[in-house]
Amino acid sequence: MNIKNLISFSIVCMFFFSTFASIGQCEQADVLDITVEEAWELLSTTSNGIQLPIDVRTDVEWVSKRIDTPFPEYARQFEKDDIVDEQGYQEFLELYDGNDVILYCKSGGRSSSAANILVSRGFNGTVYNVLGGITDWDAAGLPIKNGNDMPEKPHLPEGSEICILGSSYDFSSLSNDINEDVIRLGWDWNGDEYIDDWTDYQPSGSTFEHSHIWNMAGYYELQVISEDIVGGQSSFSDPLNILVDTPPIVTNFEGPHDGKIEEACEFIVSGTDADDDLIYYQIIWGDGTDSDLLGPFSSGEETTITHTWLEKGSYTIQVISIDEHNIESDVLTHSVNMPKIRNLFSMFSILEYFINLFHMYF
Ligand SMILES: [Ca+2]
Ligand SMILES: [Ca+2]
Ligand SMILES: [Ca+2]
């Protein structure tokens, strides 16, 4: 190998070395160790991004004492042993993948190993480890919460007490936590004390909203429960009693489409209600007058009603049915014509005049 070849070979070797070295660096675990003061700086404002502090200690340690940082960077718990476990790791990903997380424990040991597990498994987000853990945090005089009280019973839910089957309705409630912990509300839509939906965590005292669709008619007790981030649960709220019901349908409106003024026209109306509720009818005659509320009738029962128009013209009759819970049907329409002979005659005369004019000139 001459000098020139030797130099070329050396350059190629240096290139490969540097390339592999940099690939190696990219894959290298990259936990960022931070002091408690640096952690507080990150967690006391969102102007430097949102970081989620995660306590990796046991349930008992978590409940007895934890760091106190403001929403939305409030402390939450996920035990180190659960992060080690494959299923637990998947749960961790579902909650926090894509977020920057700050792990802490009592003095930094468990959080360091949990952080290294996350990074080695390719967790998508920056992983910080708090050196010295909650011990140093407390010693530095940073905010701490000790023990836990359960949140207060949530307010009676607000929302419609009569809901139409298959339609979406919004409900709201609120609850306070004496420790000012973030809380979430659990919604039990049918009073069986099984929580059907949880909201996301919000600060204590926030108004929580949730929508729901019932797919079976009947009476329901809607109640909510409040749970703080530490796991303390309130009792259930008082229930909001809700009737889920079906609107009636006007199935038939039978009668003439042509009539004479000052002569009564007779119509037959009937409707049904899937809940077998009693139903009423109201008819808007199109001439500025409405019928009285007719009824009550059983579902499917027919009734007869007459109306007399006093002026010539075309009228659109609107018929609605209302059930005993005041739920209205869709509108059914029926057109009636009270002939306008003279008007029609004059219209035809004008038309005839224009046709003759056309023939004269073209
Ligand atoms: Ca922040
Ligand atoms: Ca609490
Ligand atoms: Ca009904």
Present the secondary structure layout.
Blueprint (H helix, E strand, L loop, with lengths): L2 H25 L4 E3 L1 H8 L7 E5 L3 H6 E3 L8 E2 L2 H5 L1 H11 L3 E5 L4 H12 L6 E4 L2 H7 L4 E3 L15 E3 L3 E7 L8 E6 L8 E2 L8 E7 L4 E11 L11 E6 L3 E6 L10 E8 L6 E6 L9 E4 L4 E6 L5 E11 L8 E7 L2 H21 L1
Parallel strand pairs: 1-6, 2-4, 2-5, 5-6, 8-14
Antiparallel strand pairs: 3-7, 9-12, 10-11, 10-13, 13-14, 15-16, 16-19, 17-18, 17-20, 20-21
Bound molecules: calcium ion (3 copies).
Give your account of this protein's structure:
This protein has 362 residues and is of the alpha/beta class. The chain folds into three domains: 122 residues, Rhodanese-like domain (Oxidized Rhodanese, domain 1, 3-Layer(aba) Sandwich); 84 residues, Immunoglobulin-like (Sandwich); 94 residues, Sandwich (Immunoglobulin-like). It contains eight helices and 21 strands. Strands 1-6-5-2-4 form a five-stranded parallel β-sheet. It has a five-stranded mixed β-sheet with strand order 8-14-13-10-11, with no helix packed on it. Strand 20 and strand 21 form a beta hairpin. It starts with a helix and ends with a helix. 28% of the residues are buried. About 5% of the residues have low confidence.
Specify the biggest β-sheet: 5 strands, parallel
What fold name goes in the CATH topology slot of the largest domain? Oxidized Rhodanese, domain 1
Principal-axis shape: elongated
Percent of sequence in beta strands: 25-35%
Strand order of the largest sheet: 1-6-5-2-4
Indicate the radius of gyration in whole angstroms. 37 Å
How many beta strands in the DSSP annotation? 21
| SSE topology string | HEHEHEEHHEHEHEEEEEEEEEEEEEEEH
**Known CATH architecture of the largest domain:** 3-Layer(aba) Sandwich
Report the total helices: 8
**What is the structural class?**
alpha/beta
CATH homologous superfamily heading of the largest domain? Rhodanese-like domain
In round numbers, the mean pLDDT is 91
CATH class of the largest domain: Alpha Beta
Tell me which oligomeric state these chains represent.
single chain
Low-pLDDT ranges? 11-28
Instruction: List all distinct small molecules, including ions and cofactors, that are bound in this structure.
Output: calcium ion
Number of domains: 3
Helix content: 25-40%
| Terminal CA distance | 107 Å
